[in-house]
Amino acid sequence: MGEFASLIHNENIKIFRRLRTWIMLVLLALMSALFPALIHFTTNGSNVVGLWDSFRTTVTIAFFLNTIFTALVAADSVAGEFTWGTIKLLLIRPWSRSKILLSKYISLVIFSLVSTGVLILFGYGSAFIFSSGAAGISGDMVMGWGQGEYVFMLILCSYIELFLTAAIAFMISSVFRSSGLAIVLSLSIMFTKDIFIAIFNPDRYEWANYLIFAHMNLSNYVVSDTGPGGATLGFAIAVLAVYYVVFMAVSWIVFRKRDVAA
Amino acid sequence: MPNTAEVVKPVASLMGVTKRIGSKTLISDLTLDIPPGQIFGFLGPNGAGKTTTIRMMVGLISISRGDILICGRSIKDHFEEAIANVGAIVENPEMYKFLTGYQNLRQYARMVPGVTKERINEVVELVGLSQRINDRVKTYSLGMRQRLGVAQALLHRPKLLILDEPTNGLDPQGIRELRDYLRKLCQTEGTTVFVSSHLLSEMELMCDSVAIIQNGRLIDVKQLKTVGDAAVPVSQTFFEVDNPEAALAQIGQGVIMEGGLAVDAVREEIAELNAKLVAAGIKVYSIKAMSRSLEDQFLEITGGEGIG
Ligand SMILES: Nc1ncnc2c1ncn2[C@@H]1O[C@H](COP(=O)(O)OP(=O)(O)OP(=O)(O)O)[C@@H](O)[C@H]1O
Ligand SMILES: [Mg+2]
C-alpha cells in the first residue's frame, strides 16, 4: 500500500510549507549569528573571547530558542490536524493510525535536526568570524576534553533535553489534541525543572531520583562522574529511556484507540 | 424489504451497527445493505445520526456493536483493505489552508498507489476547479472547498464514494453539476455513491434509493423509480381503517399514519389489498390515492418529533 517514505514526505511538507516554520528558522539563525558578534563587541581588547568559548555561550543560549521552536512544531503535529479538521481526511487512507503517527514523529525529529543544524552552522560561522581565532581565556582543555569536543558534548546534551521536551509535547498533542496545552506543559517542564530539583532535592529525597526533572540536563556528566543525588550517567540514561518509552507508548495507544469526532 | 439487492453482493453492509457514547445510544442496531452501481441516499433530519454512521463506515470512530463490511472486508478488522475502496467527505471538507488546492490533492495522491498527475488534472477538471487549483485554499469559498473535497475523494477511483451533505455550500449550478457527475461516475465507472442529506428534494433528483434514518434508527428504505434524470413521485394509496397495526400485519408493507395505513400499490393491487383487509375483518372506511413527493412522505414519517 504505497510507500511509507511518501507519508514522511507529506508531513515534511506540512511543516516546511508553513510560513511560521521559516520565521522560526530565520530567528534561530539570526540569534545564533548575533551572539558571537555581541560577545566580540562587548569585550575589550585585553580580554579576548576565543572561538570555542564564544560558540559555547551561543549554543547554550540559542538552544533555549531551538527547544521552544521544536516544542511548537511537536505541539502542532497531531493537535493541528484536529484544529484544522484535516484529521478526518488523513485517517481515511489505507494506512494504519500507527504508521501515520510514526510519520509525524519522524518528521518532527527531522525538523529538530534541521533547526539544530541551522543553530550550529550560524553559531559556529559567526563565532569563527568574530573571534579572530584567538585561544581565549579558558585554555586548551576542559576537564580532559579538547575544546571542540567539549562543545560537541554540550550540544549533544542540549539536544537530548530538546528531544525529550519534544517527546512530551508530542505526547500531550496526541493525547489531548490541544497544541496550546502541549506547548504550555512541555515548556513549563523545561523552565521549572531546576526549581523542582531545588525543592525536591534528590540528595534529600530518594524518590526524586526517579523524576525526569533531575536528569534531563546531562551536561553535568561531561565534567563530573556523578550527577544530582549521586546518580551515575548510566542510571540517568536509564531513567530517561524509561520515561521516553512511556511517552511514546502513551502517544501511540491513545492515538490508535480514540474516536475522531472533530 | 425483499428486493434485488439480495442477488448482487452489496458494496457496503452495515450489520446491526450500534454506537454508544457513555450512556447515550447514537445509533441503534442499524442494518443496511448498499447495492452496487447506485446512488444511494441517506436521509434524516438534523441530529438523526447520519454523520455518526458515516464516521463508523470510514473507521473514524469505533463501532460499539455490530460490524461494517466494505467490499466484503470488515472496517474493524481489515481497516486498510476495506478503506482502500472508499473515498469520502465527512462533514465539511477541511483542507490544509496554507497549501494550494493542487498541493492538497498531492498529499492524498501520495498516500495511495497509482494516482498520476494526469489523474489529478482529470479530477480537477471534473469538479470545475481548474482556474483556482493553484491558489491557496485559504482563499477558497465554501463551495470551492466542497469541490476540492469531492476531488480528493475521487482521486483513487474508489468503488464506494461516501459524501456527507456534499451540496452544503454549493450554488444551484454547483448542485446541478455535482448531480450530473455523480450520475456519470455511477454509469461509466460503476461507482457506488452513498450520499447523506436533509435536502429532500435534492435526494429525489439524485438518488436511486434512499434510506431514512431518525433518532439513530433506520425507519425505511425506499426505491425511487427514476425515469431519465427526474424521479417520478412515489404513488401511494391511503387506506383509512379501524386498526392500522392489524392492516399492516395483513399487507406486510406500508407506513402507519393517523387513522390508517399508507401503502405503495398500483391500481390493480388496490382492489386486491382491499379484499384482503375486508377478508381479515378489518373495517375499511375509505381508500384515497396519494401522489406525494418524497419530501411529504419524509416530513410525515419524521415530522412531529423534534430533534433529539
Ligand atoms: N461525541 C458525541 N457525544 C455525544 N453525542 C454526540 C456526539 N456526537 C454526536 N452526538 C449526538 O449524536 C446525534 C447524531 O449526530 P450526527 O452528527 O450523526 O447527526 P446528523 O444526522 O449528521 O445531523 P446533521 O444533519 O445536523 O448533520 C446527535 O443527537 C448528536 O447530538
Ligand atoms: Mg451531519
TrEMBL record, chain A:
Q: Which UniProt keywords apply?
A: Membrane, Transmembrane, Transmembrane helix
Segments traversing the membrane? 21-41, 61-84, 105-130, 150-172, 179-200, 233-255
Question: Signal peptide position in this chain?
Answer: none
Per the record, a Pfam family?
ABC2_membrane_2
**Protein name in UniProt:** ABC-2 type transport system permease protein
Automatic annotation (TrEMBL), chain B:
Q: Which SMART domains match?
A: AAA
Whose protein is this, by species? Paenibacillus silagei
Q: Which family does it belong to?
A: Belongs to the ABC transporter superfamily.
Which lineage ranks, top first, belong to the organism behind this chain?
Bacteria, Bacillati, Bacillota, Bacilli, Bacillales
Q: Does the keyword ATP-binding apply?
A: yes
Question: What Pfam families does this protein's entry cite?
Answer: ABC_tran
Query: Taxonomically, which superkingdom?
Result: Bacteria
UniProt KW keywords:
ATP-binding, Nucleotide-binding, Transport
What's the protein name?
A: ABC-2 type transport system ATP-binding protein
Per UniProt, what is one GO molecular function of this protein? ATP binding
All copies of domain ABC transporter, residue ranges: 12-240
